[in-house]
Each structure stands twice: as C-alpha cells, then as structure tokens.
Amino acid sequence: MTDYIAGLEKQARQIRRDVVEMVYRAKDGHPSPSLSCADIVTALYFHIMRTDPKNPAWEDRDRFILSKGHACPALYSALARTGYFDPAELVTLRFLHSNLQGHPYAPKTPGLDSSSGSLGHGVSIGLGMALAARIQKKDWRVYVITGDGELGEGLIWEGAMAAGHQRAGRLTVFVDNNNYQSCGTVDQVSGPYPIAEKWAAFGWHCQEIDGHDMGQIIRAEEEARKVTGKPSVIIAKTIKGRGVSFMIGDNSWHKRVYTDAEYAQAMIELGDTA
Amino acid sequence: MNAIQEGTRIGFRNGLMELAEKRGDVVLVSTDSLLALRGEPFAQKFPHRFIELGIAEQNGVAVCAGLASAGLTPYIGTYAGFLTMRACEQMRTYIAYPRLKVRFIGCNGGLLGGNREGVSHQFIEDVGLLRTIPGFTILCPADGNQTRQAILASADTDGPVYIRIGSGREENVFSPDDPFPLGKIRILQDYGDDIVLFTYGFTLGRVLEAAEELKAKGVKAKVVEAATIKPLDAEGIAGVLAKTKCALTVEDHTVTGGLGSAVAEVIAEKAPAVLARLGLQDTYGESGFPDELLDAYGMSVNTITRTAEELVSKKRQL
C-alpha cells in the first residue's frame, strides 16, 4: 500500500509539473489554485474513478466536474496523463484553436465531462448527472471539486439543498479548502466558515481531511461510498500553491505568470518524476 | 383528428406526454412549477421521469445540464423570466454553449401571459434576451394547439429550444391538426401587397382581425406568422417584403430585441422597406386583464389598423 500511495504521489508531482509548464508556456492561467487541488484530482483520475480513456463517451463511466474551473491545468494534465489525449497538447492551453480552453469546455476536450468556469455550478450539474444515473438505473458515481471562496455563490447552496432533499447518494463533493480566493483569504473576503456544518444542515454526510494526504483522500472517498441515501462532502484542507515554496502564502499566484527563473526554481522544487 | 388544446399550458403538457409515451429520454423538471405547467398528469404517469427541485431556477437549469450530458432530454418549465433572466447564465454557458439538448418552457410570456400578476410575473424581454445567445432555437406558438405541435415538431432539434407560452388564456387560432412550421414563416392571410403584418404568439388573432378591417378600408395586407424567432427565416421575410416593401411588426414583447428588431435587421440587410413596430415601447406593463392590457399597450386591433394605414401612406409618399 505504501508503494501504491507513493506511486500516486509521484503522479501528483507530474500533474504539478504540468501545471507549472502550462502556465509558464501560456503566459496565462491560474497556477496556485491548480496546485491546491492536484492531489485530489490525482486520486480521482488515477485511483477512484471508473473511466476508460480509450472510450471517453463510455456511458457507465464515473463523472467529474471541476466546479472551480480556473484550476483546469491540473485537470487537463490528469486527462492527458491517463491517456485521453497526448500530453504534448498540454502546452496549447489558452492559445487560439486549442482543445484546452482557458476554462473547461466539454465538447472540445476528450474526457471532460462538463464545462465549468463561472463559479457555483458543479454541485447542481453533478446532481443532474446523479439523477440521470438513478433514472437510467445506472451505477456511475459523480465527483465534484469546488473552491472554498466559491461557496459564496448562492447556487452552491441551491444545489446542496436539492441534492440533500433528493438523497443523491452517488454524488461526492470535495471542497478545496485552501483558504484563499481572488482578493484575499476567504475569512476576510466572504466568510464561509464553518463549512462542514452548513453542508450537514442540508443533509450531507461530511468529512474533513488533509487534502494533500493521498491516503486520507482515498479513505474518505471509500467512507463516502459506504454512505447511502445522502450525498457526501469531503472538506479538504489544502495549501494554495502546494509544492512550490515561493507560491505558498503569496496570493498573487492565484493568477500570475512565472518568470524564467521562477519557472526553473519551481521545477527544481517539484523534482523529477522518474 | 387531434383534440383541441385549451390554452398553451395544457398544449405543452399534452404534447410532452405524447412524446414521453414514445421516448424514454423525456424528463420533466419542475422548480415548484408543476401546477403552473398543468403537469400533474405527467408526474402521475411518469413518476420516475419527473424531478421536482423546488424554487431554485439556476439550480434547475444546471441540473438539466447534468441530465442532458448523460443522455436524457429534460424539459424544464416555469415563468419565462425566472428562466431567461434569473437563470440566463446557466442557459447560455452550461446549455447553449455546449449545445446540450434541453427544452425550456417559459410561461407568462408577454402582457397577455402575465396579465393581473403585474411586472414581476409578466415577461416582455425573454425573446430578445435569448436571441442574443448563439445556438438557441426560439419558438413562440400562438395557442394551445400550436404549443402541442411545437413540442412534437422540435423533439429532435439539436441543442436548446425555448418555447414561449402564456397563462392558458390564449384564444385558439389554429386547428389541432395544423402542423407547427418549425424554422419557417407562414403566410396566414394574403389580401395583397400593400403591407405585411408580421406577428407571433398571442397577438396573432388580433392581427388577423386587423387585416380584415384593413381590407374593408381598401388596404391589402398579408399576415405573416414568424413563430420561429430563431433561427429566423430571413429569406422568407425578405421574400414577402421584396414586392410589398412595407412591414408592421406586432408582438406581445418589448420592441427592443424581439421580432420588431429581427425584421428591422432583415430590412436593413436584405430587403429595404418602411417599418413600424408595435409592442411595448421600451416600457413595462402593469396589472390588468389580458385583453385590456394588449389594448392599452399598443396592440389593439384599432392601433394595428391605424398604424398600418399610416405606414402604407408613408410608403406611397416615398
């Protein structure tokens, strides 16, 4: 198991390297919000979700929605590294005619289950997918990652109430609780705390974990899977910019471009993945 | 021979139930709007394909994105503005942009639809708002029979479809067997080439009546129904204007962005003509009985007739 977890952690390093590379090449994008959810994205695509990259439209696949769509470099990397498309394509991010839009657009990108970008939509879209499974008597599961600043969107709570009421047991939401949003810390700007109590009040099964501990992510999802008759939320404490020391605690990396020196430094810190 | 549909809401419900009998992908989504949609028989007959989501329209539309992406065809209905204004972004970014097959049923379209409820429940901007969004199909059936036919005719239309309906108090203009002319204008009366009266929806009966009055006064009008506002049959509109060169639009909607604007665009680009636009003149309505509201806000048979006469004499002076 230790080796297995180590393998996933190596994969997460690859995703982080891709994020830095993509933003550096694009000279645009949101690096630190991508790094905070990189471990959860890795766990989902390399361990948790039932997918078939050779058949992206496979009806019975599990679904994923990156509700905080600005973190899509991490998602694009996961899709490429699991084989949905050639990793060489990653550096086309945000360029004209690329399949990798600045925010996710499902019809363009192989393996992408939902568009996203304008915040607040993932829970509701995920609920729709979970209800579709129920109607069609399918057993796929639906995973969503939201931000914590994103919890300011009223639609999140419309979706939370509806999913609780619908007892949408196949829906699992990770809150990437990196404690920052665009203009500062979430407690300064929007005040989402306490987070778990809010979801619990809407009838959700709640867990709180370290969102960079691969073992905890996997165990929490296994726990969520055992819960029937209610949706699950996993509030994952994370660090914005995780993996690159100079990005941590400096919220300008929410959307910022690496200089050549910063890029080189970031890659050294992330280490190779061989 | 099909049964007469008593109003647009019943027409919607019955059309949807016919579709649901044949197609397992049809799902009805309510935002506490089941009663407004007259949808109880659907919910009783197809309980597993009925989803009640409560009073939360943005959530309702976003849930439809999830349903449609998984292969179902959701029909979501509530008051027109709660969809096209409150959930406008969801309709654009999460349905139209990814070209998902979701159907939107907007009740209380226009003054006739909203009538005594007042402005918060009277929607005069819905068509104009959606006309700006790429990929939408916008259908405005005139009565219950045409609403049923529009539901059936658009069942296989790609991407999102918006169907504007009213309160259920619309007069029947069409017979139950008349098909819905998806994507095409339809000439419903043709007394000659003095003027073309363009309309859609709940003003159609009034415009047909005005054409009769005009005839009695020696003005020869064509009545053209444009029930598909988008994609607009621009060629058809240009075609009927080529000889007539005189257009009056009448719509239970603001003249900004609706059929009046759409016809003005065709005139400017393809078919020079004189034009006047009846409808709400960049103003709001108010509470009132349906027909008296249309009369008060410039859509009476008298106003239509008088405006048409003025327009024809303007054309002749050019």
CATH superfamily of the largest domain in chain B: Thiamin diphosphate (ThDP)-binding fold, Pyr/PP domains
Number of domains of chain B: 2
CATH topology of the largest domain in chain B: Rossmann fold
Rg of chain B, rounded, reads: 19 Å
- How far the N terminus sits from the C terminus of chain A, by CA atoms, comes to 20 Å
Order of helices and strands of chain A: HHHEHHEHEEEHHEHEH
Mean pLDDT metric of chain B = 97
> What's the CATH first level of chain A?
Alpha Beta
In sequence order, what are the helices and strands of chain B, one letter per element?
Answer: HEHEHEHHEHHEHEEEHEEHEHEHH
Radius of gyration from the alpha-carbon trace of chain A, in angstroms: 17 Å
Distance between the termini of chain B: 49 Å
Describe the structure concisely for a colleague.
With 274 residues, chain A is an alpha/beta fold. Chain A is 41% helix and 12% strand.
Structure description:
The complex is a heterodimer of chains A (274) and B (318). Chain A is an alpha/beta fold and 274 residues long. Chain A has one domain (2-270): Thiamin diphosphate (ThDP)-binding fold, Pyr/PP domains (Rossmann fold, 3-Layer(aba) Sandwich), CATH 3.40.50. Chain A is built from ten helices and seven strands. In chain A, the strands form two sheets. Chain A has a five-stranded parallel beta sheet, with helices on both faces. In chain A, helix 1 packs across helix 3 (38-48), helix 3 runs parallel beside helix 4 and helix 3 (38-48) packs across helix 9. The longest helix of chain A is centred in the N-terminal third of the chain and has 25 residues, at 2-26. Chain A is globular and about 50 Å long. Chain A starts with a helix and ends with a helix. Chain B folds into two domains: 8-164, Thiamin diphosphate (ThDP)-binding fold, Pyr/PP domains (Rossmann fold); 186-317, Rossmann fold, CATH 3.40.50. In chain B, 58% of the residues are buried. Helices cover 41% and strands 19% of the residues of chain B. In chain B, helix 1 runs parallel beside helix 8 (144-153) and helix 9 (204-216) packs across helix 13 (301-317). With 318 residues, chain B is α/β, with parallel strands linked by helices. In chain B, strands 2-1-3-4-6-5-10 form a seven-stranded mixed beta sheet, sandwiched between helices. Chain B has 13 helices and twelve strands. Chain B has helices spanning 8-22, 40-45, 57-69, 80-84, 88-96, 110-114, 126-131, 144-153, 204-216, 234-244, 259-269, 290-299, 301-317; strands at residues 26-30, 50-52, 73-79, 103-107, 137-139, 161-164, 186-190, 195-199, 221-225, 228-230, 246-254, 274-280. The chains are: A alpha/beta (274), B alpha/beta (318). Chain A binds chain B through residues 59, 63, 105-107, 113-115, 117-118, 121, 124-133, 135-136, 142, 154-155, 158-159, 161-162, 165-166, and chain B through 27, 48-49, 51, 53-54, 56, 58-59, 62-72, 74, 89-90, 93-94, 97-99.
